[in-house]
Amino acid sequence: MLCDGHGYPLHFHLTPGQAHETTAFVDLLVGADEQVTDGDGGPVAWPAALAGDKGYRADWIDEYLLGLGITPVIPSKGNEDRSARPVEFDKDVYRRRSIVEMSHPDYPSSDSLYRGSRAA
């Protein structure tokens, strides 16, 4: 799910449960670009930065975002050389990522979905 800085969803892309979330990354951005428009079909806004968790940490994502003029705000993995990244990690901007986490409800785990629903 892609949200703005206030937690309002802009676009989402569903993937199979076994698919890594980065497989939908480009489709998510393209979909938001196509759907978040003014009345004439023009873009409403363009992000200055995009934050994601370590699951989105990949060189190709950094390069893709930078090519669009968007600063990636994704922490390095523990086994990476942070100084080799093309941008410096901005902790203050990253802390705002929690807005996205709070923008959708917590879905119950599959265990709790079936608890108490046994057939007699």
What's the helical proportion of residues? 25-40%
Percent range for β-strand residues? 5-15%
Helix-and-strand structural type: alpha+beta
Q: What's the mean pLDDT score?
A: 78
What is the strand arrangement across the widest sheet?
1-2
Series of H and E elements: EEHEHEHHH
Overall shape: globular
Largest sheet: 2 strands, antiparallel
User: Which regions have little confidence, pLDDT < 50, spanning 5+ residues?
Assistant: 107-120
Q: Count the helices. How many?
A: 5
Rg result = 17 Å
**Overall strand count:** 4
How widely separated are the two ends? 39 Å
Describe the structure.
The protein contains five helices and four strands, in the order ββαβαβααα. By secondary structure, the chain is of the alpha+beta class. The strands form two sheets. Strands 1-2 form a two-stranded antiparallel sheet. Strands 3-4 form a two-stranded parallel ribbon. The model is unreliable at 107-120 (pLDDT under 50).
Task: Draw up the topology in text.
Elements: E1 2-3, E2 9-11, H1 25-35, E3 49-51, H2 59-67, E4 71-73, H3 91-95, H4 98-101, H5 110-114
Parallel strand pairs: 3-4
Antiparallel strand pairs: 1-2
Could you provide a short overview of the structure?
This protein has helices spanning 25-35, 59-67, 91-95, 98-101, 110-114; strands spanning 2-3, 9-11, 49-51, 71-73. By secondary structure, the chain is of the alpha+beta class.
